[in-house]
Amino acid sequence: MAGPSSSARPADPGRAGEAGVKRRDVRAATRPFTRKARRFPRQARAERLAPYVLVAPAVLIIAALRLWPLALGVNFSFTGDGELNGTPVGPANYLELAGDPLFHISLRNVGLLVLLLPLAVAIPGLLATFIYLRVPGHRVYRSVYFFPAVLSPVIVGAIFNLMLGYDGPLNSLLGAIGAGPVDWLGDPGIAMFTVVGVHVWATFGMALVVFLAGFSTLDSSLLDAARVDGASLRQTIWHVIIPSLTRTIQFVFVTTMIGMLTSMFGLLFVMTSGGPEGATYLPEYYIWHQQGQMNRPALASAASTVLFVVMLVVGLLQITLLRRAGRQD
Q1: Per-residue b/e over 8-28, b at no fewer than 16 CB within 10 Å?
Q2: Is 248 in contact with 317 (CB distance < 8 Å)?
Q3: CATH fold of 102-328, please?
């Protein structure tokens, strides 16, 4: 009788036994769920549907209070105003926006806000870092950081109108040190920077709270390792803290940008009323002017649609750039 072929080799009993154990472990692990699904099919189906049922109320609320009004606004932007109220006019409102100098100024100011956004995020980020690392003065920051956030924009605007007036205390202080007075709210070249600075001061407390929440998830052993290696404060922030808070920074960037585009109306109304020479117009102030002063709701709806698209594009670009930066780090 011929012997076994030389190419046939006996299976490794150790590997075969290990594979058998793994298969038995998998079957044993999944057997309770399989039996449960067979015995209680309705309960298993309910468990699969539970997440969707829990999320459904929030989805319905967003659809009813956000998406549906947005769709109505977009549809209304293609109708006319005045005698043409409710009459479809196609893209006429958007063409009028394209030729309106005030709307051009408002979009240009949006670009300015985008350029100033890193500074608006860095200020609360650094203050949160000082509080977390307990640098000298951190108790003062912890005590007063949220105070501006509880003030009404009208009150904040009135206070800074007094402080930044041409004969106000700030210009008096500048005169005492030999610097000339500055027309903070009357100079078209600096009025927008002034209002943005006041807005950042009034709202950075919310972003700082978010940063402090992000620091609660930071692995303290990384900071200990940085101290042992002799890293400076700047190196610790740049190489340890920022990479660890990438998600938090993304969230603060997007929410701060949305706040700048949609929450500055109170300050603009009280401090500059869109002036001087329309230099402080933003899309939301333009929308209010067309709706409330000019009685042109269709044109205001078109401007609102443009503002929504701008916010969407800017937000997606920010998230994309921050994700790429996080991957490179």
Answers
A1: eeeeeeeeeeeeeeeeeeeee
A2: no
A3: MetI-like fold (1.10.3720)
